C-alpha cells in the first residue's frame, strides 16, 4: 500500500496536480521569505532585506510556488531513496527555471529555498515514517525523474 501511495505522489507531482493545501503552501512560502536574507545571490552576496513595499507582494506567484514545492517534494523522494538527487532533479530543475529568463536573482534564490524546504521536509518525513526506500520504488522514482527532466 505504501509503495502505491508514493507512486501516486510521484505521478501527481509530475502532472502538477498536487493536492497540498493553500494554507500549507502559504506557510512554506512565508518560511522561505523569512530566511531569504540568509540566501546568497549569484554574485555571492546575501539577498538584501525586503522593503515594506516588496513585502506587500509575493516573491513569486503562488502558482509558481506550488510548482516549485512539487519539484522539491520530488527531489525529497529521490534523496530518501538514495538517488543522486542533485543531478537527477535539483540541478535540472534549477537550470530549467533559470532558462525561463523571467526570474530575478532574488527570485531564483527564493525558488532555491522553497525547493530545499520541501525537499528536506519530504525526505525527513519519508525516512521517519517509512524507514528505508524500497529498491523497486527507487528504480521507479529514478525513471520518473528522467522523464520529467530529459537531457536538461
Question: Which key terms come to mind for this protein?
Answer:
mainly alpha; 6 helices
Task: Explain this structure.
The structure is a single chain. By secondary structure, this protein is mainly alpha-helical. Helix content is 66%, strand content 0%. The chain has six helices and no strands. Helix 1 (2-14) runs parallel beside helix 6 (135-148). It is globular, with a radius of gyration of 16 Å.
The amount of beta strand, in percent, is under 5%
Biggest beta-sheet profile: none
**Span of the ends, CA to CA:** 33 Å
Give the helix level as a range of percent.
Answer: 55-70%
Number of DSSP strand runs: 0
Instruction: Please work out how many helical segments DSSP would assign.
Output: 6
Write down the overall geometry: globular
- What is the residue-mean pLDDT, rounded to a whole number? 87
Residue runs with pLDDT of under 50 for 5 or more positions: 1-8, 10-19
Over the alpha carbons, how many angstroms does the gyration radius reach? Answer: 16 Å
Secondary structural class: mainly alpha
- SSE series: HHHHHH
